[in-house]
Design a protein that fits this description.
Layout lengths: L1 H16 L3 H12 L5 H13 L3 H14 L4 H13 L3 H14 L4 H16 L5 H13 L3
Length: about 140
């Protein structure tokens, strides 16, 4: 069974590398319906992200984060999927969750502090504007 998973993953990765994302998704979905494997779920999450299917991507990352709550890669994928589909609150909740089970990163703690103070002190018409302000401040500065 393990060899079968590796064969499916290798075929799906080859399709991904050829830019055939939808074909890779179809192949993985066919396998995933029979036997769930974390590597298959992870690749499905990544492929859906690459096809801009962020809501689907977040659903796969949500399943994985329950199994691997300390994984920075999975948490980052979940955060980015939420962010890109406009679920900003969920993105920050994931960031807080990740920091609660891992060693805090100073930049992330600062972002969360500013996020909470801005939300508590302002009633923005568009939360994306506020969140974009500190992402520009911390991640777009050179």
């Amino acid at each position: 069974m393990k060899k079968n998973v590796e064969n499916i993953l290798n075929k799906a990765l080859k399709l991904k590398n050829e830019g055939k994302y939808e074909e890779a998704i179809d192949l993985l979905n066919e396998y995933n319906g029979k036997q769930e494997a974390p590597k298959v779920i992870y690749l499905l999450a990544a492929l859906h992200f690459l096809t801009a299917s962020y809501e689907r991507s977040s659903k796969y990352y949500e399943r994985l984060i329950k199994v691997y709550p300390n994984s920075e890669i999975i948490s980052t994928g979940l955060f980015q999927s939420y962010w890109n589909c406009g679920s900003f609150n969920e993105a920050f909740l994931e960031l807080e969750r990740f920091l609660s089970v891992n060693v805090p990163v100073e930049t992330y703690l600062t972002i969360l502090e500013e996020h909470h103070s801005l939300i508590n002190n302002e009633t923005p018409k568009n939360e994306k504007t506020i969140i974009t302000k500190y992402f520009n401040k911390y991640f777009n500065s050179n």
